[in-house]
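Lab manual, section 2.4: Encoding a predicted structure.

Procedure: take the sequence of the chain (963 residues), apply the prediction step described in section 2.3, and record the output as structure tokens. A sample record is shown.
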Amino acid sequence: MALLAPLASAALSGSSDPTPQPLPDRVTDTSRLPSGWQKSGDRMVTYDGDATGLHILVADAAHAYRWRTAATLSEPGIDTDQWIGQTCVTGSGDRAVVVYAPRQATNDQQGFQQGAFAAVVDLADGTVTKLPQLVSLAYFNPGCGSGERAVLSRPEGEGTQLLTVDARQGKLTGRQTVPGQLTSAVPFEGGIAAATRDSVVSVNGRGHVRTLARTVGTPFRLVPDAHHGLAYQVPASGKKVQVRRVTQGGSDHLLGSGPLGALAVRGGGGRVFVTGKDAREDIPGSALPKGWKALDVPALSEVSTTGHLALTRVGNGTEAAGRKDVGTAPAPATAQPVGIKALVPGTGATFDFRVQPRAPRPGQGAEQSPALSARTATPDEGGMHTNSIRTESVDDDGPAHTTTDPDRACAVTRNDPELQALQPSPAQVEWATDLAVQGKLDERRRKGWNGTDLPSYTPQELFPPVALKGGGRVPAQIMLGVLAQESNLVQATSRASAGESGNFIQGGYYGNAGSVHTVNWAAADCGYGIAQVTSGMAKSDATYTAEQQKAITVDYAANIAAGLQILQDKWNQLHDHGMLVNGGDPEYLENWWFALWAYNSGFNLPDASDAAAPWGLGWFNNPANGLYPPDRKMFLSSGADDARNPNLWTYPERVLGWAAYSQQKTDPATGTSGPAFTVGSWPTGNAPDAQPPHDAFCKPDVNDCDTSKPRKVEGSSQPTGPCQRDDFKCWWHQPATWTDCATTCGTEVLKYQATDPEPEPASPHPASCASTLPRNALIVDDVPNTVKFRVGSTNPCAGLRNWTSRGTLSFTFGSAEQNGATVYPSKIDFHQLGSGFGGHFWFTHTRDPKYTDSVVTGTWTPDRTIKGWARVMVHLPDHEATTGQATYHIDLGDGTVVDKTISQDTGGRNAWVSLGSYEFHGTPSVSLSSDTADGTGDDSIAWDALAFEPLPGEPADAVTPAS
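Recorded output:
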């Protein structure tokens, strides 16, 4: 199960179709293509993300728009449900510049503004060149020009760093910091053009800023044309948007206007396209400059390089708010098929495609970005020399040999087999949420629930609901929307399916900022589980008892109860300060806007010593903030594709979007898809009717915010916007009313009542409980006999287990010296799952041997000597074991070691596999390390049970050590 994958096209076959027809990956009826397509240079480039990475997809007209994957971009060591990002295509059409990041970066201000990676992708051969800077996730990043240059931007101290990229060379060729923050930066006439204050400006190579045009609003979507001009949009009065063109000489002309959101400027390579269903009427052809073209397609369509094809929907639809086009349940860590809906401008011909991402150079796309290498060296420099890799042995009880993290900063460790989080199904999440908001989540968890040492409890005994001031309660869809945004409705790692246990979902547990080679406990973010409960979950924080912390970690229902408490506290805090929305009735979903704002980015209390000091809700989540496009509609209201780019909306907007449109989830048992949870109900049947205008919390006399005066603060890292304060403390602290909730606002719809039992999911990966080996086999399991395998309160192996572990599996973890301490980066990508033999196994991903800090070695040792012949059998789990280069080092008990290399891929079966028969002369052992010659971080390598099967004599499969 993945966290938040994007969505499928509305035109694609859904689960309601009993016999869906497979969709092609190209145009099959070429008579519907524009004439001359065989010799056309038109190219369509798009992207889609899932848990495996951000896929860059390409289709060429000359090949009937046959889709292929140019690259898949990801970073090792990041546990995410979905990679998101944006692309632009250079003037030649040969390269894409890509900004990409894990989806959860949108939930954090720093991650949003400085947490995205950047790369250049060769669209012909798939070569990936990752760039050495982290950049912004803002909607305007990256920006391509008419040639092979592009611009990336990011806040830098008190200004904006503009990074010029030479895509042909795949490197940064310019770097300059300009006071303040510019938006929508693109290469233009040998320099850079951008939006700032109420103007379009140019920036030369020395960082000098010159005004090209003054505007009545904040300009956005800048596109250079081939004739020394620059297209741009700017909001106008009456909820209109203007399309304008300015030249390097400062000549500025209005070309046309239309409703905000109904027109958009697109293009590249010197071509400019004005998109919108009424674009030809809003902007007459006679008004269009040379090289410009109006296309009668939806405004937010993606357009090909010459404008002969537009994409209206793109997404994979497996785990988000879209419709479903794939009829089978996704395999873990497998790229999901992408549904694409295309439209030919002018003729209106439509095409539906289905694309299976397959990158030609997967290793390049998954290699660690040099942006994370400030503390590490490259492989060519001999490994991580600045980390001073340790190879010496330490005490067995130390962190080098325990799977847990005794040196951690967060309260509950990863990789403790007695503290695994149960992955809930969507039905369980909705059940727990519905009961929690009613104050009825009193399902009894028996002692030892899910194999833990927890005593008996109920979720709302541990986390009692907080009464709302003013009465009422939290609507279920508000809490469901929070859970959808925070974690995509998962409690455990996205590698665990519903009904399967594993480590809790974690983002910043190691403080590694995405690097698989860095552990920085001082920077750890201790967010746990489905509600990402953070407060009270640091090792040094005594807010919660140890019992509460464990329950938050392993039990999705307890986690939901704790998250609900936090949201209720935010409502009460705002109520105390008179900050009510639309009269303050909590029954209405939109009235939780302020509480959601505070849930994500906090609430700045009044200064008791200075009544004039700003206070209230911060600027980052204000819809008027220039970080978000001014022509955006309600999140998901334009279609499921919105979830491909959640960074275009504030946190409250995203939560309300999930509440109105839900997510799409796949039942792993049946492969069918449907809404993850019940959506709210709106009296008009149209949720956008109740959305606040973007300037609802922007008032000069309240928070020094004025949309009529776009402002750029010199020396600031904030974008151009309406905030009039130099410190950007345009904090909102007043009640707000923008609609009559009785006629427009949403209300909850409950699916479950207090008497409904907890749904029970069926894991697609049931444990292999019984041994099929001969009775005399010495089985060495991967965990001690004391570890109890449970799924919730159930023991699936009850009455089936016919074996006892006769030995131990011990580990050695690669380490490094960082910041004066020994740390263990190898644990970042080390995982456990509650399946396989006996209900537990470990796995990581294969690595290049140069990266010794990332290598894990596991050694099985029986509890007795073996004298004579025995067959060595290894159990391989039915998933997360894919390497073809698993080399087992078999010690015969007298110091003689024989190596055996096998593939761990069993084709989706739990299976015992023979490593051969050997003559032993003492206490044997078998070791397996994660370093392989082809290790790129893509293939998984697992440690499950291993067995020694004594034999009466030399067998036919005997292996004799080389002399």
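Check your result against the sample. Residues 809 and 860 are 4 Å apart (CA to CA).
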